[in-house]
Amino acid sequence: MDLKQFEADNCGSCRLASLIPDVCRMEDCCLGVDEAGRGPVLGPMVYGICFCPVSKKEELKDLKVADSKTLTEAERENLFHNLDQAKSYVGWALQILSPNMISTSMLQRMKYNLNALSHDTAIGLIQYALDSGVQLKEVYVDTVGPAEKYEVKLSQRFPGIKVTVRPKADSLFPVVSAASICAKVARDRVVKGWNFAEDLGQIDTDYGSGYPNDPKTKEWLLKYLDPVFGYPQFVRFSWSTAQTLMDSKAVTVHWDDDEEDGEKAAERQNNRSMLSYFSASAEADRAQLTHRFFTERRLKSLKSF
Questions:
Q1: Residue positions in the annotated binding site for a divalent metal cation?
Q2: Highest mean pLDDT: which of 160-164, 225-229, 245-249?
Q3: Mean pLDDT of 1-21
Q4: Of the ranges 111-120, 162-171, 242-251, which one carries the lowest mean pLDDT score?
Q5: β-bridge partners, 49
Q6: Which of 30, 125, 191, 239 is most buried as measured by Cβ atoms within 10 A of its Cβ?
């Protein structure tokens, strides 16, 4: 798993993938989808898929894959190594979503919530497998939101593929467990080796779990809160945990438009509002003002005759 591409630019989204086994292009395959890092206030969220021929389900099960949350970091690393060694019939792909991308998506004018982002990421990875020639017949997904509604959405998006969406799918289906392990290993490695773009000096990398209720995580958030600039991009600033700390510990910012709309503020300051340039009267003003290029050459609009 080569993370250099994401490490070079860790403020966006990045896809990593294994080679596609030849057998996956020739035989009916099953695919599992799961994520790691949905809840933490620190670090990225990683979506993973893992796929193999339906005929190899038992062999995948024999690798002893399990829900990544029930395993130690060393056990996950060992199982990922085993999955990588089974590359003759197992393939995987990952989508790493940076904290910055998650936050800006959730806070943009047209809200893009975490469920919608999760659904679209999962759909994108399934489509990637299909575009790569994987002969998908079965897809198993850990639910995000209501399971039945999500299952219908995916079934409509991928007709001809049997889609199963279940809560705790990572503990029910080995192919989802495998996807869970791939995603979690990638997230752990990214967090451990995070490259801070901000000049923060010697960084304390003892973040704790990254979850908002972890005392170590809370301590880290308090330590690295800049009163003016807020948090480094390692923090999901759209999370209420981060917002609450910034509201209570950082410098208060007052915006003129908080108490009066743009038109009134412009009038009070004897300035022209931006909105006035798009009014009907502005159109008339522009019609009367002719560029000197035309006046010097005594050129007139045909509408003048």
A1: 34-35, 142
A2: 160-164
A3: 89
A4: 242-251
A5: 33, 93
A6: 30
Amino acid occupying residue 79: L
Six-digit token pair at 126? 């399934």
Side chain identity, residue 143 = T
**Residue 226 pLDDT exceeds 70:** yes
Q: Find tokens 């898929």 and name the residue.
A: 49
Beta strands in the chain (DSSP E): 13-17, 29-36, 45-53, 91-97, 136-142, 162-166
What span, in angstroms and rounded, lies between the C-alpha atoms of 42 and 35? 15
Strand partners for 138: 30, 162
Are 234 and 99 spatial neighbours (Cβ–Cβ below 8 Å)? yes
**Residue-level pLDDT at 264:** 57
Report CA dihedral (208, 211, 217, 223) to the nearest 10 degrees: 140
Q: How far apart are CA 200 and CA 197, in angstroms?
A: 9
Place of tokens 């995948």: 60
| Domains annotated on the chain, with CATH | 4-192 (3.30.420.10), 256-304 (no CATH)
Mean pLDDT of 82-91: 93
Average pLDDT over residues 63-69: 79
Confidence band for 293, pLDDT divided at 50, 70 and 90? low
Pair 178, 184: CB distance under 8 Å: no
HSE of 218, CA atoms in CB hemisphere, 13 A: 7
Residue 85 has, within 13 A of its CA and on its CB side, a CA count of: 8
Q: Which two tokens stand for residue 47?
A: 């979506």
Q: Which residues of 128-151 are buried (b: 16+ CB within 10 A; e: fewer)?
A: ebeeeebbbebbbbbebeebeebb
Q: How far apart are CA 243 and CA 103, in angstroms?
A: 11
Known binding-site residues equal 34-35, 142
